[in-house]
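Human: We require from you a standard protein entry with sequence in single-letter code and fold as tokens, and nothing else.

Assistant:
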Amino acid sequence: MLWFYCVYDRSDDNHVKTDLFKDSSKQNLSLGNHGGSSTDHPSPHVSKGKQIVQVYRELYTHFISFPLAIHPELKEKVETFRNSILGDNKDKKPLKFQSSLDEMGIENRMFISPNCLHLTVVMLRLVNKEAVDAAQDILKVELVSYTIIDAFANAGFAGRDAKLHLKLHVTLMNTTYRRDERKSNTFDAREIHKEFGGKDWGEYLIREAQISKRF
């Protein structure tokens, strides 16, 4: 799995800086689309273990996120990233691996729309309107609590266990949205990592947090 982790600069909580991190597995390339399609039942073409994971993921109905699609500069960079990989960028020299996209398991539908860019904070299960309303109230409290707990932990007045360690990420590619569900849920991102691993995605102001419905 490849994640573009968005790491808080704690001296200024309104800004994030993005870096590329390489994990050992290969399902997502992250810098999440609300878009794509989901299935009501596990696919008969996947293993029992994968079906369990799929059902588990479908328990989540919403997620807390920081919207990033409000930044035209970032949207343009993500669009250029997509076009460069797929060979749609006429102003750039073709990448060496473009002729091997099929073998790598990469297709157009895997790329997330720049209009849906967001930082995913936490996944939620909100089964009715009452739960959504309660989550909105909790969101306000938790954001304040996060700041308080972190400040006291840094001052040494609270234990390390009190600190909340977020792994913020923005998904750029996801095999979930492939047209053919029978295909493997992995893809080879090694060449993409070589080409874009050192890319600077910039710093962006976070103006608000949102509760978003998954599908």
Observations:
- The helical segments are 48-58, 72-86, 101-104, 129-154, 190-196.
- Strands lie at 2-8, 15-22, 28-30, 62-67, 118-124, 171-174, 203-205, 210-213.
- Confidence is low (pLDDT under 50) at residues 1-27, 31-46, 48-53.
- DSSP finds five helices and eight strands in the chain.
